[in-house]
Amino acid sequence: MAHVPARLRSFVAARSLESCEYCLVHADYAAFAHEVDHVIARKHGGSTEPDNLAYACAQCNRFKGSDIAAPDPETGAVTPLFHPRTMAWADHFKLDGPRIVPLTATGRATERLLQLNQIDRLLLRKELQAKGRYLFHDDGTLPNRNALLVAALERLTRELEQQAIDREFAAMAEDSEYRELQRAVVQEFDASDWEAWEQGEQVNS
Ligand SMILES: [Zn+2]
């Protein structure tokens, strides 16, 4: 697999709201880690640029391989696969419960090649839908993107807060006045004080 720089990988993941851009399953609920897919494989001249990258679950990515087209099962005509950057998912697919129903030749060719409706994948989506953890609810019409976006922002906020706390602690540890104060406090207590204090703590707790 082609190397994708970490920052680009993060960008691709965030852009998809961390969901596979073919079967729409969120990375948190997939059995294997999601991957960065070259929509047009490098061997067909596809570049490692945002416009040619999509986030894909391991199953979609493996079935797709380096293919860029496949026969439409209805007509047999070789048809371009779904391209998450230039096409809209809802133009080519819809949901019927957990089933991904193709609406176009591209949808049909993609659905078959990527085996989007394998039984284990249907069961996973059914379970996620029941818990409200699939990108679309089971009527297939109501995007759940806002909920995922809010969750992503909350995670980011928590991470930033934690970073700020870590920085404060790091600064305190380097602050000589603070270290001096700490030493003075420790010296004020001798061993028996500590013992008494610890016992007091136990009594109080
Ligand atoms: Zn997928």
Quick tags:
mainly alpha; binds zinc ion; 11% strand; 205 residues; two-stranded antiparallel sheet
Q: Give the overall shape, derived from the CA principal axes.
A: elongated
**Strand count, sense and closure of the main sheet?**
2 strands, antiparallel
Q: Name the average pLDDT.
A: 85
What is the N-to-C order of secondary-structure elements (H for helix, E for strand)? HEEHEEHEEHHHHH
Output the structural class: mainly alpha
List the uncertain runs: none
How many domains? The number is 2
What does this entry look like structurally?
With 205 residues, this protein is mainly α. It folds into two domains: 6-143, no CATH class; 179-205. It is built from eight helices and six strands; from the N terminus they run H-E-E-H-E-E-H-E-E-H-H-H-H-H. The chain has helices at 6-15, 58-64, 89-92, 105-113, 119-130, 145-174, 176-188, 191-204; strands at residues 35-38, 53-56, 69-71, 78-80, 93-96, 99-102. The strands form three sheets. The chain has a two-stranded antiparallel ribbon with strand order 1-2. Strands 3-4 form a two-stranded antiparallel sheet. Strand 5 and strand 6 (99-102) form a beta hairpin. The longest helix has 30 residues, at 145-174. The N and C termini lie far apart (57 Å). The model has no long low-confidence stretch (mean pLDDT 85).
Protein topology:
Layout: H1 6-15, E1 35-38, E2 53-56, H2 58-64, E3 69-71, E4 78-80, H3 89-92, E5 93-96, E6 99-102, H4 105-113, H5 119-130, H6 145-174, H7 176-188, H8 191-204
Antiparallel strand pairs: 1-2, 3-4, 5-6
The structure holds zinc ion (ZN).
